[in-house]
């Protein structure tokens, strides 16, 4: 779990009400790394339960991270019940980490395309958890 502070904040924001979809997108081949995807989802569920958050977990693995992020936003939810907000962390070292900056741009553009609200969290790595 790269950003446990986000789950802590989510638990505080939701106040144990409503249902959340806690998800992540990872790069890789599902055929070759299905075990990795399952392990990440197991850890995500553990973190969800630790923070007392009601909801679902989802891990999407694709060959490239842009496709994974788009797939994640398109497939999240259950039938007609889908999320209306994306919460993500501001990338650390975004000035020098081109990949992090590009991912952030992709998330912003995709959230806008799906008409979702976007919550960007900066400084989460210094929060007490």
TrEMBL record:
> Which keywords fit this entry according to its UniProt record?
Membrane, Transmembrane, Transmembrane helix
Q: How does it sit in the membrane?
A: Multi-pass membrane protein
Give start and end of each SLC12A transporter C-terminal domain. 4-122
Instruction: Write down any Gene Ontology CC term.
Output: membrane
Record-linked InterPro entries: SLC12_C, SLC12A_fam
Q: From the UniProt record, which GO molecular function terms apply?
A: potassium:chloride symporter activity
Q: Where in the cell is it found?
A: Membrane
| Keyword RNA-binding in record | no
By its UniProt entry, which Pfam families does this protein fall under?
SLC12
Superkingdom per UniProt: Eukaryota
Q: Which GO terms describe its biological process?
A: cell volume homeostasis; chloride ion homeostasis; potassium ion homeostasis; potassium ion import across plasma membrane
Matches recorded under PANTHER family: GH08340P (PTHR11827:SF72), SOLUTE CARRIER FAMILY 12, CATION COTRANSPORTERS (PTHR11827)
Protein name as catalogued: SLC12A transporter C-terminal domain-containing protein
User: Which species expresses this protein natively?
Assistant: Haptolina ericina
Q: What is the lineage of its organism?
A: Eukaryota, Haptista, Haptophyta, Prymnesiophyceae, Prymnesiales
């Amino acid at each position: 779990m790269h950003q446990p502070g986000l789950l802590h904040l989510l638990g505080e924001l939701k106040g144990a009400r409503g249902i959340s979809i806690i998800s992540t997108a990872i790069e890789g081949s599902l055929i070759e790394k299905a075990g990795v995807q399952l392990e990440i989802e197991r850890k995500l569920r553990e973190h969800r339960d630790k923070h007392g958050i009601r909801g679902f977990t989802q891990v999407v693995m694709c060959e490239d991270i842009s496709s994974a992020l788009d797939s994640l936003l398109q497939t999240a939810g259950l039938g007609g019940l889908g999320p209306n907000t994306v919460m993500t962390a501001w990338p650390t070292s975004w000035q020098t980490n081109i990949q992090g900056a590009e991912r952030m741009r992709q998330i912003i553009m995709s959230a806008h395309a799906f008409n979702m609200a976007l919550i960007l969290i900066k400084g989460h790595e210094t929060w007490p958890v």
